[in-house]
């Protein structure tokens, strides 16, 4: 009985986020419905995606569900985490939440590579209190503020592609959760890494940085290029 329950939960996780369910096999569809479905676009891709979902997708505005305890170390959850890591590194990001690849579960992956120190201008790296963060996988995370001092810096999101705005975040947080081995971990984060954790936690609660931003600072990150190129600029959603 327990095995059957676990297999059912695993199936639900693997299929979580699929938005198109066909129940017409058991009854005849009306002509109107069949006609509408014929002209409706059919999804060519299913989550977990290898791209970032974009604002407007309902999955980004839904509070994510906790991963059942007995499935934390399962192949299904491992598959989702592997996809998250792949997308994180493919797009050169520092954080990704499961809803951003179409899976409404409470999973976060973060990484601030050492090499970024050589890419980013030193004044920015120092002013934003950036530091290396090894690959961190957190399942069913909790976040506790440990330093209520706030800092305001520009913040972007791969799910609001091509834009940024200044956002206030707490200086330090205690981040807890389980890894794929079902081991409880906790890490004290400060500066930019604390910002990453707060940003990704917002995703799990159906929130985006635009809900917290100083709206007067909201910009298109390539506005100067748009002018220089007479508007002939594309923002890619793939890589």
Q: What is the highest CATH level, the class of the domain at 2-15 and 47-151 and 172-212?
A: Alpha Beta
Distance between the termini: 44 Å
Kindly report the CATH topology of the domain at 2-15 and 47-151 and 172-212: Peptide Deformylase
Topology order in helix (H) and strand (E) letters: HHHEEHHEEEHEH
Give the full name of the CATH homologous superfamily of the domain at 2-15 and 47-151 and 172-212. Answer: Peptide deformylase
Q: Name the average pLDDT.
A: 89
Structural class: alpha+beta
Task: Please tell me about this protein's structure.
- This is Peptide deformylase.
- Its EC number is 3.5.1.88.
- Belongs to the polypeptide deformylase family.
- One of its GO terms (biological process) is translation.
- It catalyses: N-terminal N-formyl-L-methionyl-[peptide] + H2O = N-terminal L-methionyl-[peptide] + formate.
- This protein is of the alpha+beta class and 239 residues long.
- It has a domain at 2-15 and 47-151 and 172-212: Peptide Deformylase, CATH 3.90.45.10.
- 28% of the residues lie in helices and 24% in strands.
- The chain is built from seven helices and six strands.
- The chain has helices at residues 2-14, 31-39, 75-90, 116-119, 122-127, 191-204, 223-228, and strands spanning 95-97, 107-112, 133-156, 163-178, 184-190, 219-220.
- Strands 1, 2, 3, 4, 5 and 6 form a six-stranded antiparallel beta sheet that branches.
- The longest helix has 16 residues, at 75-90.
- It is globular.
- Residues 1-6 and 17-28 have low confidence and may be disordered.
